[in-house]
Design a protein that fits this description.
The chain has five helices and eleven strands. By secondary structure, the chain is α/β, with parallel strands linked by helices. The protein is globular, with a radius of gyration of 17 Å.
């Protein structure tokens, strides 16, 4: 069996968005050149709103001054999708993965990412679903995982945001993903209690490894 290696960077604390974005771009260039194996960044961000390539800025319900007053940064980035929020209590993951014959195309990559997230959420007794119309993971009429990825020379970056213990009031600053008729939810809201972040990271790593077929995993904890 061919060895398939994954390096995980597990960041502790609340990280600045731009800092992690810069790390992603550096890793992507190295992965394109096969200087490093596939990577997975796991992180919680400081409050930030990001807009994708085709974002409709009418979905932003606060101006930059109002965002600054609430301690929320704003970045326009390369991923697909519209507008979303990241912040404390939310597990954000950035797979830096080279798409090859084992993953038959970009859509397959997104489906595999959704599958790993659904399996993780299922361990807490919560049923979810996906739909071809809207990327992400849903519970009833509420999104629990947002997904927005980008690819450069067949290497993925950006990724997903799973609402674990997220303060959902910050989503009032936007129309999430431009969907006015749908809500957002979190594991804490559905279960009635907080989930230890390291616990859910561990469970997600297990299913990401399983779904994507890695057999050699290295985890680096970054304080």
């Amino acid at each position: 069996m061919n060895e398939k290696t994954l390096q995980i960077l597990n960041f502790k604390g609340y990280q600045d968005y731009k800092k992690i974005w810069d790390i992603q771009k550096e890793l992507v260039e190295k992965r394109i050149k096969d200087e490093i194996p596939d990577h997975l960044i796991l992180v919680e961000h400081q409050h930030v709103i990001t807009t994708g390539r085709h974002a409709d800025f009418s979905n932003l319900k606060a101006n930059e001054v109002e965002l600054k007053e609430q301690g929320v940064s704003l970045y326009k980035i390369e991923r697909g999708g519209d507008i979303t929020y990241h912040g404390p209590g939310q597990l954000v993951g950035y797979p830096i993965v080279k798409i090859n014959s084992a993953i038959a195309g970009l859509r397959k990559f997104i489906h595999m990412l959704e599958e790993a997230l659904q399996k993780t959420i299922k361990t807490y007794g919560i049923d979810t679903y996906t739909t071809d119309k809207y990327v992400g993971v849903w519970h009833k009429n509420e999104k629990i995982v947002a997904i927005g990825v980008a690819f450069k020379k067949w290497v993925s970056y950006h990724g997903f945001a799973l609402n674990v213990n997220t303060d959902l009031s910050y989503f009032d600053l936007i129309i999430p993903c431009g969907l006015e008729d749908k809500g957002v939810t979190s594991l804490e809201k559905l279960l009635g209690h907080k989930i230890p972040m390291e616990q859910i990271k561990k469970r997600f790593i297990h299913f990401f490894k399983e779904v994507f077929g890695y057999n050699d995993i290295h985890i680096k904890v970054i304080e």
